[in-house]
Design goal:
5 helices, alpha/beta, Collagenase (Catalytic Domain), globular, single chain, 198 residues, three-stranded mixed beta sheet, 41% helix
């Protein structure tokens, strides 16, 4: 299983690299690499009334790209798209990210993860920690994990940035066990499909 990271719009490479390393540590059976391609934001995502971007078209573009990669490589993948614009979903004022659950596509937004958004001094380490937590959270969804009731688990839902800061960048015991089970099921399904094709 491959996990790919790509940017929609321009994002500093050093942030992508820190996220990549943390993903490989959290998902040691998966290789993670950064794609060089920079995709353009879907025009239809922008809502001029809200001055925000709808997450659905961005997630769809990410899924389309994931399917393209799978077609080219012949192997399964999860694709994490990273944007630096303010995103929202239906019924929500904003979201930090979204993913198929389970599925191939996930996205996170860095826009509200910077301390400066809240009128605070820049803090690169805090910004990176928040980015890593949100990346792991959405990839967890792509592997079939739902929101966790443990406020310290990375799969806990963040209504605001304080909840992101409170939770740890790790899966709790229950979520980790389910993650391993789901990853095993996905691997077994992949082998079954490959065996059937011969």
């Amino acid at each position: 299983m491959e996990i790919y990271i790509f940017q929609i719009g321009s994002i500093e490479r050093k942030f992508l690299e820190r996220i990549r390393r943390s993903i490989e540590e959290a998902f040691p059976t998966c290789a993670c690499r950064i794609l060089e391609n920079i995709l353009q934001m879907p025009e239809e995502a922008y809502n001029p009334i809200r001055r925000q971007y709808k997450s659905e078209p961005i997630l769809k573009k990410t899924l389309d790209y994931a399917l393209k990669i799978e077609g080219e490589t012949g192997g399964p993948c999860i694709l994490l798209g990273i944007v630096d614009v303010d995103i929202y979903a239906h019924g929500m004022n904003f979201i930090f990210g979204e993913a198929q659950c389970p599925g191939r596509a996930a996205i996170i937004s860095l826009y509200r993860l910077r301390p400066e958004f809240y009128g605070e001094q820049p803090n690169e380490q805090l910004f990176i920690e928040r980015s890593i937590k949100e990346a792991m959270h959405e990839i967890g969804h792509a592997f079939g994990l739902v929101h966790c009731s443990n406020p310290l688990c990375v799969m806990h839902f963040s209504l605001h940035i304080g909840m992101t800061d409170r939770k740890q960048p790790e899966f709790c015991g229950n979520c980790l066990a389910e993650l391993k089970h789901n990853m095993g099921k996905r691997k077994g399904l992949i082998h079954t499909i490959e065996d059937a094709s011969f």
